[in-house]
Amino acid sequence: MKALVKVGYRCTSDCLFCHSRASRGADAPPGEVERLVRRAADLGHRLVAFSGGEHSLQAGLRRWAGLTASLGLDLGLVSNGTGLDGPTVGWLLERRLRYVHLSLHGGTAELHDLLAGAATFERVRRALALVSGRGLEAWVNCVVTTHNLGHLRGVVDALRPFPDLRLKFSMVEPRGGAGGDGGGLVPGVTEAAAAVADAIRHAEAGGRPGVAHDGLPLCLLPGLGERRSDLRSHGFASMAEVGERDLHPVDALNSIQPPVCRGCLRRGRCPGLYLGYHQARGDGELRPVTGRPQPNGFHWTLEGRVVGGTPGRCPILDLGVDPWDRGRHLFARHGGRLARYRTDTTDFTDGEVADVKHRLGQVYVDRAPGDAPDDFARQLVQLRRARDCDPCPERARCTGIFEPVEENVFARDDQRVLRLLSGLEGDVLDVGCGDGPYAEALAGAARDGRLRYTGLEPDAGRAAAMRARCPWAEIVEAGAEAVSLPRASLDHVLFLRSWNHLADPAAALDRVLTALRPGGTLTAVDNVGFGLVRTRAQAARGERSAAGFQHFRNDGAGEALRWLEDRGLELLERRDVGPETSNQWLLHWRLPVVRGRATAGAAGEVAR
């Protein structure tokens, strides 16, 4: 992990878009930087980077660099480069300088100096030459504005003498100097994304692969989603602004993913829109990417054991609540041992991770012997928030301590599903029957003729396996979205762990509800997203595995309810997911009998 410490906001540049324009001149109080460096070391960070403003104006820079080295930490600098010279770079390298982040906003002095508000182009070029070839993780950042939008290729060309430096284009944020009308600095995200994509292609054509971007919605950068570069992707977990007394998790509170982004496959890695941009221009430029499978789980990976602390006192309170991400960090206690885990998943957003952990409570220890669990009831052990967290005044903002529960929540919650299925009679359609997770509950009624079962399964292999396993069943290789069903031919429709596998729920419902007889029922059972607590070896195996048959969504009962509303059904039962349940929800509906209308229809064959 890395930590970023702001040391002051004085600067040798006066960038037109500067975030800290209103705080210009403020410096960290005496001793604050040293205290935060020691704090980072105590928390297990491996690198501390100093930022500002321009830290080279700070008299304490050499003292801070010496302190990081003495504590066994690597050193990083986020700088405009104007204060770097040969002796300074050499001295810093001796103090374990490993990370450098410089800025170049144009390929010419005229353009760069205009945006930097100072004649710094040549000094930046000299700084680039000084850090190039040193084996550093060295980044060059170009802030994309209306002024340089048509000249991004020039930035690529200016870096040709320095092939080891990594280039990133960052969308200007509408705050600070670019706030309000921003002096016309803020381009549209659509045109900015097009210009950045063009510059990346130009760089690749010239032999510079891996040019990155940040601050732009990934739906506008098709094929370049993996190129997003931000503090987290650089390994920073914590940071502190000037005046903050402790390190805090790196967050994305200045951005938003509006409702239109829900279900987009790129949302986990995507920065969304800056709040100021969204407030001024809305979300009409966004083009969510949907209709393809997505994971329904992620993992927290072991970072280390927590040792020491004050007897009888919460160890997280001893460590301090502030540095830990409420969602992405996880402290798990078993017996007298406490372990710290973290997830860096990009399949789920920060909000979704926190939701899985705290609101839904879907955290499980993975005890599967293979790459991924295939029998939840036997291989997963639920973790719940420790009861001693309940009275704590920090509960609502703390990452919390979680403990294993002995109850088999999966088997318990399945009992209600089994009771519903055991009473079914007549013509039953099982949509997306898959591997037949509840086949045995239906087999008896099917064998003695009380139930006529038809399963729809779009996967040929699974369909063949179901035919072999359940000779009493009729299995049709088809998806619900395109199947043809005779009107009023079904007494019951089942979506048993298949709802979130539907590519188009509306189309599937249109098909099956026309076939449901008045008085018939529709039952949907499925799972929300969940998190697995894993060792590093388990996590590595899971990353290597190629999970098939993934979800198109991770709908809960509430989201599924919206698809089913206004379709003339009567809701009989709803079971939501929460911290005391498994990750399985249930909805049970009935099509009312209309007075004077026939309630029976001839059973018909299912046709593709």
What does this structure look like?
By secondary structure, the protein is an alpha/beta fold. It has 3 domains: about 1-255, Alpha-Beta Barrel (TIM Barrel), CATH 3.20.20.70; about 295-405, no CATH class; about 410-590, Rossmann fold (3-Layer(aba) Sandwich), CATH 3.40.50.150. About 25% of the residues lie in helices and about 25% in strands. It has 17 helices and 25 strands. The strands form 4 sheets. Strands 7-6-5-4-3-2-1-8-9 form a 9-stranded mixed β-sheet. A 7-stranded mixed barrel has the order 12-14-13-17-16-15-23. The chain is globular, with a radius of gyration of 29 Å.
Indicate the radius of gyration in whole angstroms.
29 Å
Instruction: State mean pLDDT (0 to 100 scale).
Output: 90
Please state how the strands of the largest beta sheet are arranged side by side: 7-6-5-4-3-2-1-8-9
The CATH architecture of the largest domain can be given as: Alpha-Beta Barrel
Q: Which spans have pLDDT < 50 for at least 5 consecutive residues? A: 596-608
Helical content, roughly?
Answer: 25-40%
Overall number of domains: 3
Query: Which sheet architecture does the biggest sheet show?
Result: 9 strands, mixed
N- to C-terminal separation? 54 Å
